[in-house]
Amino acid sequence: MLRKKTAELLTKYICFVVVLIPFMASFSSSAVVGSSITVIIAFIIKRCLLKDFKFIRTPAQVPFLLLFSLSLLSFFKTVDLRASTEGLWKLFYYGSLFTILTEELKGARHARWIINASLFGMALVSIDGIWQLHWGWDFMRRHVYNVQETLGNFPRLRASFPHTNIFAAYLAVFLPLAMSMLLYYWKKKFIRIIYLSVLILAVFCLFWTFSQGAILGVLVAFIFIAVLRKSRFIFIFLAIFAVLVPFIMPQGVKQLISGADTVWQILLNPNRIGDFRNALNMISHNPFLGVGVNTYCLNIEKYFINDGSIFVGKAGYAHNIYLHMAAEIGIFGVLAFCWLIFRLFKFGLKKYKTQRNLFIKMYILGVLGGILSFLINGLTETVLYYPKVAVLFWFEIGVLFGLSKFNNTPDDNNADSKA
Q1: Is residue 225 scored above 60 in pLDDT?
Q2: Closest C-alpha among 44, 46, 45, 36 to residue 16
């Protein structure tokens, strides 16, 4: 009896904390990590008390175990066992988190609380970002905005985040969810106004980060949602934004775009291309095992390319999650990750098409859009290696699999919106 009551209390604690995690991510990564670890401990104790060691099977488990195994195998090449152990721990932590979300997501009401917490956090940092643009500092951590000296010293918002690109990556995860929920609540005027307001605030802040990869990721995610929902509203929203952009765009950005011959010159500066070349050089010398998980920055100086080219990179990271991963754990490691993503989207799209409950359907779509946006942003930023936002990527994967448990009965809002 005591075991059962203790397990029930632990379940309530886990359900409460997983609601808080996406909200806390808006202002404190240490709070996210600390609370997540307590959830992992609570989950393990609960399962031991109940003697329940069965887990829901998901398409991500085998690819993730392969990814973990290849990361462990890369220890044979590591130059720093402590750094690699930390990297392996992070992977275990992320895997535990998405497993717990899969197992402990309790229903539509619980899912709604997670959505509300996620979007409230995004609204809070968006207001903080606009405050920062006006006053020069944010009201949560007193951070000043980043300044882009090469583009006319215009401000790049970062709100309470360490860097503007991390702020942009955070917004890129939740903006597609905000859009999908806006479509779901389209017929409820008051809620629609709230969601639309949050969406506009966040899009404005995203634009003022000038994080090209994140902007491209959100654009593709919005189009992804629009195509699947046949949404006129999203296309109109994007068209209006495209018309307004030239009027609010800083002069330095206009000069960059007008002087570019291709879209790649807008997305990638010479330093980033140089970082890609350095990463490829590292991969070519360590194609199978990599240089060791979590040791890219410790090895990269040996692989700097100095051939007189304008494309010279000196960063301690690859500015690309796929190149960064291949450099650390080998080509087979990044293939395992791509296999995980393929199976995830195959599973998610199947559940989206077969789900008759419109709320669950739209939540699945918003999560898929956020993951897609994150992965596209990963082409130009090492977002999977920024702990503050990487945790949200794995969190959303857990939510996606957790949603698949819910019943397939229509909800009271199943009169589909034509927005």
Answers
A1: yes
A2: 36
